[in-house]
Amino acid sequence: MAFKTLVSFLTLLAVVRAAPSVVTCPDGNKASNAACCPLFALRDDLQANLFDGVCGEDTHEILRLSFHDAIAFSPSLKRQGKPAGGGADGSMLLFPNVEPNFAANNGISDSVDALTPFLASHPEVTAGDLIQF
């Protein structure tokens, strides 16, 4: 009987400890990880000042930008020791006079120009996180 009680107690303890913890961010939002707290302010800023609260053409263009930022990675070139790109690294925002000028990236300059001010106003968010967010 004591063994069953001990096993039940240990099982309950394991379940309680495995439950995800919640962090309360400085702005009152809750997240599973404190590193996510800056994303709430970014979300609100993007929705209010870029997307005007709607999922329209600007949203489509930013999604296209996220694809182009991420697609430029080649594992096979990396294995050969050649430059392989960095994947979803925000290079479109970090090098706005280089990356958007490649022919494959035609048409993303407007999205780069639209997101660049958000990078400056949210310095705790990386360029890669901003594009992929």
Automatic annotation (TrEMBL):
One MF annotation (Gene Ontology) recorded for this entry? heme binding
Residues forming the Plant heme peroxidase family profile domain are 59-133
Instruction: Enumerate the transmembrane spans.
Output: none
Q: Which domain of life is it from?
A: Eukaryota
UniProt key word Membrane: no
Q: Which PROSITE patterns match?
A: PEROXIDASE_2
The intrachain disulfides are 25-37
Record: active site: 68
The note on the cofactor says: Binds 2 calcium ions per subunit.
Its EC number is 1.11.1.-
Its required cofactor(s), as named, are: Ca(2+)
Q: Which UniProt keywords apply?
A: Calcium, Disulfide bond, Glycoprotein, Heme, Iron, Metal-binding, Oxidoreductase, Peroxidase, Signal
Q: Which residues form the signal peptide?
A: 1-18
Q: Where is this site: Transition state stabilizer?
A: 64
Where along the chain is Ca(2+) bound?
Answer: 69, 87, 89, 91
Quick one: a GO biological-process term for this protein? response to oxidative stress
Q: Does the keyword Amino-acid biosynthesis apply?
A: no
Q: Which family does it belong to?
A: Belongs to the peroxidase family. Ligninase subfamily.
Name of the protein in its database record? Peroxidase
Q: Which organism is it from?
A: Sphaerobolus stellatus (strain SS14)
Upper taxonomic classification of the species? Eukaryota, Fungi, Dikarya, Basidiomycota, Agaricomycotina
